[in-house]
Design brief:
This protein has about 100 residues and is an alpha+beta fold. It has two helices and six strands. It has one domain: Sandwich (Immunoglobulin-like), CATH 2.60.40.2000. The radius of gyration is 14 Å and the shape is globular.
Length: about 100
């Protein structure tokens, strides 16, 4: 069994504590992040976390776990794929 097979077998869970600490399991990769937004590819699809002062506290690529701290304003799953996220960014730039 290679690493890719192991990651796809992980359960996906999101735990939020006091709206400032997030633990996410089943993360395949982090596509992009800054202090206001994270875009994660999980075993259940793409996940966007928005907030302020966001930063990675712990990253375990072998087990697919990510811990993030900061004020969480929203969590959203993308239904289609990452292209929806890219389209939203371009529409904001050219308004």
């Amino acid at each position: 069994m290679d690493k890719t097979d192991m990651i796809t077998n992980f359960n996906h869970n999101v735990t939020i504590s006091e709206r400032k600490n997030i633990i996410i399991s089943g993360v395949k990769k982090i596509d992009s992040f800054d202090d206001e937004e994270f875009l994660l590819e999980t075993t259940m699809g793409f996940l966007i976390i928005k907030g302020t002062g966001l930063e990675i506290i712990k990253l375990d690529t072998y087990q697919g776990n990510v811990s993030i701290k900061g004020k969480v304003n929203s969590i959203n799953y993308l239904e289609n794929n990452k292209k929806e996220k890219e389209e939203n960014m371009f529409s904001k730039l050219f308004k």
